[in-house]
Amino acid sequence: MSFVRYENNSGPAVGYVADGRLYPVPSASLTEALMGPNPTVSGDGQPIGDVTLLPALDPEAKILCVALNYVNHAKEANQGIPETPIIFFKSQEAMIAAEADIVTPPIVTKLDYEGELAIIIGKPGYDIAKDDVWDHIAGVTCFNDISARNLLMVKAGEKTHIDWFSGKSIGASTPMGPEVVPTAEIIDALKAKTIHVTTKVNGEMRQDASIDDMIFDIPTIVAFASSRVELRAGDVIATGTPPGVGLADGRYLARGDVVEVGVTGLLSLKNTVA
User: Fold this and answer.
1) Which residue of 47, 94, 141, 191 is most buried, as measured by CB atoms within 10 A?
2) Contact, 46 vs 20, CB < 8 A?
């Protein structure tokens, strides 16, 4: 069972996906559908491939991303191991759907992929205890934390600082989706940490790691983030990328490249660089 956001004749809508077919549901938001009872569907639906998908998040959601959350990714980035989660924001304007083109403006010369597992908050909370985190997560999805590497670092005298805004929020650059699977459908694998995150570029495997390799697990990330800001229903947290990004060996993305992010148990997220 999974849900998507899509465009219908009257605007954005939420749909239930079963056996490759889409059935409209009356929920006002994706998060409401995820947290509600299993939908009752009727009719034949329509092939999921016949609809225009939207990014798999609600329009008012905050988008939080975790940096350096796999040891070997921190090493390939020439960074130390963080003592607490490092979290930054992405803008809503950066988000695109599965199959949509990843926009590459001329200012970006080093475009990089970062396949990730993302979670969607279903129950709001502030300073959430680690033992209570799973009750606050509505679902999971695929996320590609596209980065403009040449814009990330800024000189300030003798020092260098990270410009998260320029490097991470290029408009129409960050894919998410296509589907969101309710937490209940995948909770055993999440808790056992048997889920793998993969990224392929033009069919070549570039990233492949278990979420068991995370420095900070999902309960730790959510508890930490909620100790700084209230998490609201619909908010998204991308949990960090494994090693194998283009930064490691200089193999950045180019126009025409097809990037596919996979998360165990979910439909893969595929996009082309335009």
Assistant:
1) 141
2) no
- With 90 as the cut, is the pLDDT of residue 247 above it? yes
Q: How confident is the model at residue 28 (pLDDT cuts 50, 70, 90)?
A: confident
Residues, the chain, total? 274
> Using the 8-state DSSP alphabet, how is residue 39 labeled?
P
Q: Are strands 236-238 and 63-67 parallel, antiparallel or unpaired?
A: parallel
* Residues in CB range of 204: below 8 A, 6 or more apart: none
Mean pLDDT over residues 34-38, rounded?
Answer: 92
Q: Token pair of 16, please?
A: 């239930």
Dmax of the chain from CA atoms?
65
Intra-chain end-to-end CA distance of the chain, in Å: 32
**Average pLDDT of the chain, as a whole number:** 96
What phi-psi label fits residue 91: left (phi over 0), alpha (psi between -120 and 50 degrees) or beta? Answer: beta
Residue boundaries of the structural domains of the chain:
55-273
pLDDT at 224: 98
**Which residues sit opposite 111 in a β-bridge?**
148, 253
Instruction: Answer whether 0.90 is exceeded by the pTM.
Output: yes
| CB-CB contact of 260 with 200 (8 Å) | yes
Triad 223, 5, 200: Cα angle to 5°: 75
- The H helix count followed by the E strand count for the chain is 7, 21
pLDDT at 44: 86
